[in-house]
Amino acid sequence: MQFTSIAFILFFTLVFGLYWFVFQRNVKQQNILLLAASYFFYGCWDWKFLALLIAASGISYFLGIKIGGSEGKKKSFFLNIGLILAIGTLFYFKYFNFFINSFADLFHINNKFTLNIILPLGISFYTFRIISYFLDIKNKKLKPENDILVFFNYVAFFPSMTSGPIDKGGLLLPQLRKERVFTFENGADAARQILWGAFKKLVIANSITPITQNIFQNYEHLSGGTIAFGIILFLFEIYADFSGYSDMAIGFAKLLGIKITKNFAFPLFAQNIAEFWRKWHISLTSWLTEYVFTPLIIQFRDYEKKGLIAAIILNFTLIGIWHGARFTFIFFGLLHGVYYIPLILNDKLNKKKKLSKPLPTFREIGNILLTLLIVCFAFVLFVSPTLTDALGMYERIFSFSFFSIPQFVKVKILGLISILIVIDWLNKDQDHGFEISRYTPIVRRVLYLFLIFMIMYFGVFGNGNFIYEQF
């Protein structure tokens, strides 16, 4: 049941009606409805893994109370049990076959232990929620949640279940405890954000997907120029797809009176790689910064810039591993870590550059294009199933065929991408890409009708899957 499907619209309409018109004065009843809706939503994907989600929630609820109520070695014991169970479950479903096959290939063993393991939907996202919950209790940033209904909703909240954002307990748990209030202003802003997310997914991402799939699946027979064009298209595809999902998730949560984590902040206008990652998949990068990068920096503080470089490379390698069990993902993360080295050596890691208004300068445009260029270079690894495929793509890109005219260039696609860039640019200082409350009612209505027309006329409704559901 995808956000862009008729089934989800009917489902959410029913939940919204019951939530605000039947149970609006009773937080407990609203939470019961939310949990039932979340489990129904998850069960529609694969009901067999619903038991795993419930079990993970129940065990984590119990362990959280034990961690918070213990001291010394006992606290460490319960914390370690929780982390081992959470990370172990994620490892089994996401990485077990990868390590078994890699070990067998390394030592030329006839592997008989590969299992047909299906990756449960959203397991990377809700596992990271659980881990951060344990660590925040251990670090006394958060008290254990005693209301089991609130905690189960925290783990399974359906708008952000399948592809994030990765919400921390400090943000979501207090909202689930208290009364929620619906306002017209919040409802209108939520609807705008959902509409913008639907436009990015249905019109931009889904229009590009058939082209990039054709290029990547047949790269051996295509020119370097065509492959490079495909990688550039993929940048816009994955941005429109993932940020479109995030916009809709945030909007649907907002309609339920709940604020979840912002996941994108106009990364297409980043002027260096550090700024790009501060604006791209924010919930994952902030999670890893708090729970991985910061502890590493403390451990490596005596090594100064060398220690900072090592911490960043390890952190980004973990980002690559988080995406899945492939060597290409590992090198994708590692390469992004290497990109940081010039910034560190020149003491420019934390320098933030504000874009000029109303248009960027030539220097800013150059910085933006260079940043997107190195991001696209790394995306070759992201889209390649094997290192052999990645090397094959790089070989063709860096051949004389790079200078040939790319195939599959369509004016319609370039026009749609231009609309995305222009609207993003006009709203780059706002909370999201379609925050237009500052305009007059007439202008707002024209823009609403324009997006609706674009979705109805150019929308591709056959592909409802989002890219990050596979992670």
Could you characterize the architecture of this molecule?
Helix content is 68%, strand content 0%. The longest helix has 35 residues, at 72-106. The chain has helices at 6-21, 27-46, 50-68, 72-106, 123-138, 148-156, 169-177, 184-217, 224-255, 273-279, 282-299, 304-323, 327-339, 341-345, 362-383, 387-397, 411-426, 441-458. The protein is an all-alpha fold. It contains 18 helices and no strands. Helix 3 (50-68) runs parallel beside helix 5 (123-138) and helix 9 crosses helix 15. It starts with 5 loop residues before the first helix and ends in a 13-residue tail after the last helix. The relative contact order is 0.11. The chain folds into two domains: 6-180, no CATH class; 185-271 and 353-470, no CATH class. It is globular, with a radius of gyration of 23 Å.
Brief rundown of the structure:
By secondary structure, this protein is mainly alpha-helical. The protein has helices spanning 6-21, 27-46, 50-68, 72-106, 123-138, 148-156, 169-177, 184-217, 224-255, 273-279, 282-299, 304-323, 327-339, 341-345, 362-383, 387-397, 411-426, 441-458. It is globular and about 65 Å long.
